[in-house]
Write a structure and sequence with these properties.
Length: 275
């Protein structure tokens, strides 16, 4: 009986000793956390969308405090939130140009189809059928709403033509839609941009024309008539350099396929397509 009692006492004493050692060690080797991390984190929206390029809001807060990210790293933050974060960090906030997502496609139901897909309503799943999906155009929006499903801000819907459409006023540029789109037809554009190219096809003119009624046929009229040199043809598709674009609307007026749209003239909705 005494042996058992001694064993219990010895183990208890050893446990207490080891606990004391660990407690002292935790104080000696404690890594102090900057209290500003908590303040910045509480200011961030908590969407954990990854639009800042970090794993979530906590990682973004740590990066901001550590100086590895600017105070306006979060694209979802409002101006007031960004200003508050700047005040916590004791710096001035530099205004960044607001950017939003845009779907470079206007085909949808107007694009020719190789077959009618009946299956899981998911763009990636549809694309696997037949190798390039149901559309004749291998670069078009499939319209099954994978982007809409991952948008936590309600900024995307499928329009009447079966094409994903972004509401720029709701878009926070979190880039989730861009990541999930298997066709990579969703791109970033400046919020204040007025001229948009509604096509992603890289096919040459004759093939593009046969695939879709709203396709760029590489006629180069936009490029030739742009006085500021903002429009170029890359991979058989018109590309706009918004640092040069003056929003004159000449390219949109000259486009015979109405692929280039002046959304300022049509109303601030992306994309606006006239059937």
């Amino acid at each position: 009986m005494l042996v058992i009692l001694y064993a219990v006492l010895i183990l208890g004493a050893l446990g207490a000793l080891f606990g004391l050692v660990l407690a002292v060690a935790s104080k000696i080797f404690e890594v102090k956390k900057d209290p500003r991390i908590g303040e910045v984190l509480s200011t961030l929206p908590g969407a954990n969308c990854g639009g800042c390029g970090f794993a979530g809001c906590a990682a973004c807060a740590e990066a901001i405090v550590a100086g590895r990210a600017p105070v306006n790293a979060c694209p979802v933050c409002s101006g007031a939130q960004t200003t508050h974060i700047a005040a916590i960090m004791g710096v001035d906030v530099t205004a960044a140009e607001r950017r939003v997502a845009f779907v470079r496609c206007a085909g949808g139901t107007r694009a020719n189809r190789k077959f009618h897909y009946i299956g899981l309503p998911d763009c990636a799943a549809a694309l696997k059928v037949g190798g390039t999906g149901p559309l004749s155009c291998a670069y078009g929006c499939l319209g099954f709403g994978s982007c809409m499903k991952v948008c936590t801000f309600g900024a995307i819907h499928i329009n009447q033509y079966g094409v994903a459409q972004v509401n720029p006023d709701k878009c926070t540029d979190c880039r989730r839609c861009m990541a999930v789109c298997p066709q990579k037809v969703i791109v970033e554009v400046p919020y204040n941009a007025d001229i948009m190219v509604n096509c992603s096809s890289k096919e040459r003119g004759a093939v593009a024309r046969s695939n879709c009624a709203f396709s760029c046929i590489t006629c180069r009229l936009c490029e030739k008539n742009c006085a500021s040199g903002a429009v170029t043809i890359e991979d058989n598709i018109a590309v706009i350099d918004y640092t040069k674009c003056t929003s004159c609307g000449t390219c949109a007026a000259k486009c015979p396929r109405k692929v280039i749209r002046d959304i300022h003239a049509d109303g601030k909705v992306m994309p606006v397509v006239v059937g």
